Amino acid sequence: MQPPINFMVIIAAKELSRDIFVAVINSLQQQSLPPSRVIFATRKQHFVDALPDNVQVIIQNSGKSAALNTAISAARAFCTHIAIMDDDCIPDRDWLKNLKEEYEKEENENVASIGGPNYGALSDNFIGRLVDVVLGAKFVTAGTRYGRTYAGTRSVDHNPGCNTSYSMSVISNNHKLAFDIDINVAEDVVFDYQLRKLNYIILFTPHAFVWHKRRPTVRKFFKQIYSYGKGRTIVNKKYPELKSSTQYIPWVVTFGWPLLFFLPLWMSVGLILLYLGVCLYGTLNTAMPHHNLKEKFCAAFLVPVAHVAWGLGYLRGIL
Q1: What is the tally of helices (H) and strands (E) in the chain?
Q2: What domains are there in the chain, each with its CATH number?
Q3: Which of 165, 167, 226, 304 could pair covalently with 313 via S-S, beta carbons 3.0-4.6 A apart?
Q4: Is 192 helix (H, G, I), strand (E, B) or coil?
Q5: Residue 84 and residue 88: Cα distance in Å, rounded?
Q6: Per residue in 153-172, pLDDT tens?
């Protein structure tokens, strides 16, 4: 007989402040299915308060993947499953409950991982709300799963590490299964790839979602996407089988702009309008909810920022 499902929640935090700690702990205490234990994996802790009995802080300066591996090792004695999110996420009240119900379904016996959507926080400022639209827009994410959602539960190749979960029995039964410590951006992509190579199933469910605070300025959004582009090239060098032709589209857009100066004016203007039209179509059809027409329209002009940032990051990773 299988033991009842219980979750340890692992929060990846670059630097753990009191505000982040309080917000996350409060949200987890309000879960309809409370976690058995909570681990913060971080580089620094900016307070020295006594921690609740079921909360642990792991200081790890060797990168996110090493921190996650340390947290998973600590989880083995406490739970049947782990759920992972970022420090700027607040889970829906039924987040863990809905994950548990999916794992318990008879047809999901070979499921090793289940994740769900990450929606922009309702408290985000105007730029943050535009960023949320862009992250869920068509033709923006270069084939990644970051902002893509689906209407129902289905099998996927990967769930973003800001909202995912794993069966500890799968991890324990495959002793070589661990986050690649050479990869600290898109480390979740590589981990899920290892699961698929072992013939396990990864599921997406729209019912287990988190609210994810978006970057509040264009500059911070640019740095985020630049980091993703650079990180993806590092992944592709070590795992060339994970390359996708769609990853090169932002790179082509980035370095295609100078060519417009060598074309007739009418052609350059036409191509720019066509491109902006595609961007607008993408933002009007964003997967992210709770946005009005003004936000979707304005977000179209932020799509080129994402394309250029990804392209420059991708080029930097190649070089």
Answers
A1: 11, 11
A2: 7-129+145-212 (3.90.550.60), 218-318 (no CATH)
A3: 226
A4: helix
A5: 12
A6: 999 999 999 999 999 999 98
Report yes or no: 89 and 162 within 8 Å, Cβ to Cβ.
yes
Return the pLDDT at 274.
92
Alpha helix segments (H runs only) across the chain? 18-29, 64-75, 95-103, 126-135, 168-173, 187-197, 218-238, 249-256, 265-284, 293-299, 303-318
Query: What does the alpha-carbon distance between residue 223 and residue 205 come to, in Å, rounded to a whole number?
Result: 29
Work out the percent of the chain whose per-residue pLDDT is above 70. 94
In eight-state DSSP terms, residue 147 is S
pTM (2 d.p.): 0.92
Residue 142 has pLDDT above 60, yes or no: no
Q: Which amino acid is at 183?
A: I
Q: Are strands 118-120 and 210-212 parallel, antiparallel or unpaired?
A: parallel
The band of 50, judged by pLDDT with boundaries at 50, 70 and 90, is confident
